[in-house]
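Bug #77: duplicate submission created two jobs. Keeping one. Sequence:
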Amino acid sequence: MDLPSVDSTNAEAARLVATLTGPVWILASEQTGGRGRRGRAWSSPRGNFHATLVMKPADPPARVALRSFAAALALRDALVALTGTPASFTLKWPNDVLCNGGKIAGILLESAGQGAGVSHLAIGIGVNLIAAPDPAMLESGAVPPVTLLRETGKRVTPETLLAHLAPAYAAWEAQFQTNGFAPLRAAWLSHAARLGDTIRARTGTTTRIGRFDTIDDAGALVLTTAAGRQTIPAAEVFF
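Kept job's structure:
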């Protein structure tokens, strides 16, 4: 589904889900109310990529959430295929894609519950293809935003990116369904940004500083801090 303009592709997914019989990608040329994590505004000018994959997974919520790693891996695969520069793209926990160390993309998972399960999942993906937010608008310590065009010299249309992203995601989804999270975890760690380095993980008003050792079998961040080894299921990470 290709829309000229929408408030947000994730919001459109929620509106359409009752009529869907299978997974659907929603692509918009422009978002007027794009959202990032924690309800932050997401800059969505024309020429950038704004899309959502909506599906009805038959999994418990904790397993549904692991699809953020499938999305990150698929997006990296698509960007590598389009640019031919695999060394440029790394993955930042929990759900960002970096290009030459700068943030080029974010992934936002939103779901609705039905009993103990999930009625639908929306995987929203935004990519700075030609434009990036003003770094002055970001909080201190945030990874600076970059664009694909400036970092690689490649001008890619949203439609072309989706043509590569959709099959890449389908392949990782099939891997996840068949073999579970283990192969996704291994692949994600092989491309993880700052693995082995000291990073900061902030949850609410608590900040923990430690060596980024790994992610566990549930996708949680594992740090070795001055207080010992800590497992952090949700946080914002700063380098």
